[in-house]
Design goal:
The protein is an alpha+beta fold and 172 residues long. It has one domain. Helices cover 29% and strands 18% of the residues. The chain contains six helices and eight strands; from the N terminus they run αβαββββααβαββα. It has a four-stranded antiparallel sheet. Strands 4-5 form a two-stranded antiparallel ribbon. A two-stranded antiparallel ribbon has the order 7-8. β7 and β8 form a beta hairpin. The longest helix is centred in the N-terminal third of the chain and has 12 residues. Bound molecules: iron/sulfur cluster (2 copies). One iron/sulfur cluster binds next to α4.
Length: 172
């Protein structure tokens, strides 16, 4: 009984953000609609030509661009949100639950497959499988599972190297 209480105490004291390189403040998520045409797909290719940009396909069917960069409200002194607890903090940040945070497991630990991340190399493989009609409308787009298989074995540079010293404080 004592052991369970001790374990519970450790678990409730443990902050899931400890040691995380503050990914939620280094990744800008830009949701977009599912590509419908050759022009849409070409726009993905164009965007991936810019550094620190990725395109992601989520398991739940959403599409987004992501841009790596520090939020201007992140205090680099202590790696914390400078508007924490104020109305200036975006609701997206307020409602992000660190206990079910998907950033860490997908971009840092690489232990989950909630998303397929595409850089230009992965995009080119994905692109080859898209089928268009004669007007440039997409007739077939690889889904999440198909994309996951297509990009297997093509590694991506870990972008969290962006300011690696900027990490949430580890509480012992
Ligand atoms: S664990 Fe998630 S919520 Fe916590 S700092 Fe890291 S990315 Fe942000
Ligand atoms: S507003 Fe605060 S919590 Fe949200 S991304 Fe910026 S620094 Fe992070």
């Amino acid at each position: 009984m004592k052991k369970i209480t001790e374990n519970l105490e450790i678990l409730t004291r443990k902050n899931p953000c400890d040691g995380c390189p503050a990914l939620c403040c280094k990744i800008q998520i830009l949701p977009c609609s599912q590509p419908q045409t050759l022009i849409d797909v070409d726009h993905i290719k164009y965007s991936l030509l810019y550094p620190l940009t990725e395109f992601i396909i989520s398991k739940t069917g959403e599409f987004s661009y992501i841009k790596w960069g520090l939020c201007s409200l992140l205090s680099e002194k202590n790696c914390s949100c400078s508007v924490y607890g104020t109305p200036n903090r975006p609701l997206k940040c307020v409602h992000l639950d660190p206990n079910s945070c998907w950033y860490k497991r997908n971009f840092f630990e690489d232990t989950s497959s909630d998303i397929c991340r595409l850089n230009l190399e992965r995009f080119n493989i994905w692109f080859e499988k898209i089928i268009f009609d004669e007007k440039g409308t997409i007739k077939y787009l690889p889904n999440f599972i198909e994309t996951e298989i297509l990009i297997q074995g093509i590694s991506m540079q870990p972008q969290f190297k962006l300011k690696p010293k900027l990490k949430k404080q580890v509480v012992e």
